[in-house]
Amino acid sequence: MSTDLPALPDDFARVLAVAAHPDDLEYGAAAAVAAWTSSGREVSYVLVTRGEAGIADLPPEKAGPLREDEERRSAAVVGVHDVRFLEHRDGVVVEGIDLRRDLAREIRRARPELVVVNSHHETFGPGAWNSADHRAVGRATIDAAGDAANRWIFPELVDEGFEPWQVRYVAVASSTQPTHTLDVTGHQEAAIASLAEHQAYLTALDPRPVAEQAREVVLATTGGDDGRARVDFEVF
After folding, report:
1. Largest CA distance in the chain
2. Which of 52, 13, 19, 54 lies closest to 36 in space, CA to CA?
3. What is the number of domains present in the chain?
C-alpha cells in the first residue's frame, strides 16, 4: 500500500465487482465501493459461488443460503443492490471456458466501464498462499473482460440478447503488484459495517466479537486509522 501510486482513473459511471465467495469484496474493496456509490456511480456484484464450503460446522446446503443472505445485506450497506450468484461450486471453481462465458455474460449484462476482481496472484505476500478459487476467478475475470468485447467469442451470448461490451479498465484488489490507488477517506466505517454483516462466517473463523474483527481487517487493508485511507489496485 503506497501513497506514491497514481490515482485510479475516475472516468467511469458503472462498476461490476466480481468475487469468488461472499465476504471476498469486504476484505478491502468495500471501502472503494462505498466511495463510488456515494458519488453516484452504479455498482453491481457477481459472486461466482455462494461460499457454501466456507463454514466447517455447517453443511453446504445450510451454509450457502446463509452466506448468500449475508452478502446481500453486506452489499446493501455500501449501496449495492444488484447482487448475482453464478452458483459454481465453492472450493473447486474451474478456470475454464464455462466460467469465462458466465462472466462475459454478466459483463455484457451490466455494461461496466470498470471491472473489479480480487487478486489472481499465487500469494497475498510472503507466507500467504492465495486460494485456488481466488486465482481461478481472478484470471477468468480478466480474460472475460476481453471476451465480452468480441462478438465471435461466445456468439451464443448474442443469441441470448447480450451484445458485445468493451470494458475500459480491470482493477485487481489485494494485488501484490498494485499500480494505482484510490483515496477512500471517510468510507472506512461503511466498509467495516459491510464486513460485519458476515456474522456467521466471521464467528466461525474467530471467537472475537465480529465488530472487532471487521474493524481490524478494514483498517489493515485501507492504511490504518491515521485519518487518511486508501485502497490499492493493479489496473489493466
Report:
1. 52
2. 13
3. 1
Cα separation of 212 and 107, whole Å?
A: 35
Type of residue numbered 57? D
Residue 4 has φ and ψ, to the nearest 5°, of -85, -10
CATH number of the domain where residue 193 is located? 3.40.50.10320
What's this model's pTM, rounded to 2 decimal places? 0.96
Q: What contacts 10, CB < 8 A, 6 or more positions away?
A: none
CA dihedral sign of residues 211, 213, 218, 223: positive
Buried b (16+ CB within 10 A) or exposed e, 192-214: bbbbbbbebbbeeeeeeebeebb
Strand, coil or helix: 84? strand
Kindly give the confidence (pLDDT) of every residue in the chain, 236 residues in length, as a single tens digit, with 9 standing for 90 and above.
556 899 999 999 999 999 999 999 998 799 999 999 999 999 999 999 999 999 999 999 999 999 999 999 999 999 999 999 999 999 999 999 999 999 999 999 999 999 999 999 999 888 899 999 999 999 999 999 999 999 999 999 999 999 999 999 999 999 999 999 999 999 999 999 999 999 999 999 999 999 999 999 999 999 866 668 999 999 99
Query: Grid coordinates standing for 206?
Result: 474467530
Q: Which domain holds residue 209?
A: 14-235
* Domain-located, residue 5: no
